[in-house]
Structure formats: C-alpha cells, structure tokens
Amino acid sequence: MTPTPQVEANDSCTSRVVDAPRVAAVVGRMPAETALVDTADVFGLLSDPGRLGLLLALLDGELCVCDLAAVTGLSESATSHALRLLRAHRVVTARRDGRMAYYRLADAHVRMLLDLAVAHTEHTDALHPERTDSAARGVRVGRPRRPGRRRREKP
Length: 155
Prior knowledge:
Layout: H1 20-29, H2 33-46, H3 49-57, E1 63-64, H4 65-72, H5 76-88, E2 92-97, E3 100-105, H6 108-123, H7 133-136
Antiparallel strand pairs: 1-3, 2-3
Helix pairs in contact: 3-4, 4-5
C-alpha cells in the first residue's frame, strides 16, 4: 500500500482540507524540488526580453552572433553573453564552422515553449499602461537603459 503524503494545512482556509484524496493525488504527482528549481530557471531565462528576443529569432533557424545582434538590437557583446547563458542551460546549441559559431534552439521542447508563450500573449489582452505604443509593438527588444544614466557626449 502506498503511504499517504503529508499535507500541510493553510491557516487562511476555513476548512483544513476540502478534498483529501484529490490533494493527496496532486501532491503525489508534484515533481521533486530540484525539478521545480530547474524549471523555474528555464522560465527565468525567458523572463529577460533580450534573451527572449534571441530565442524567438532562432525559431527561424540557426544564426550567428552578428546576425542575432542585428535582429534584436543588442550589442554583439550582450548577444554573446546571453547566448553563453542560454547554452549553459541547454536552451540553445552551437555549431562551429571555422571561426564562426551558429546558434539554434536546443530541441523541440524549447520551440514548443516559445510557441506556446507567444500564442498565449497573442490571445490575452493584458493591460500594461506603463508601456508606450512603440514598446507594445516590439520596436526594441533589448533591455532599456537605467533611468538617470546619460550617455557621454563625444567632444
């Protein structure tokens, strides 16, 4: 017989456990803590607009750092750094051709995750009053500059 998992009660509930068998079934199918952390890491990688832009650009196939920088508006240095992070988490892979490296999505799961995320944002009508019209249209993918920081003017 399978032991019943322990379920901790939430103090804000008026009833300790509404449907004990269902709660036990859900607790039984929950992934291990390490799997939750790894999954949260993947979503964390997708939470940066610059990295997300790189991944969306790779939906059309492999591209080199220069091409990805041109597509996303990021600097080549920022693009390379982001790709290094995505590669370390096995979200993208690289193929070398001489001195050039061409990046692509690691597998079909990454493609599905991106496709689902884009489809979700297209069918929801989320309100973001803090966004301007150009930001809502996706004119620039890169990270915005920090407020109060000015570029140095060249003499």
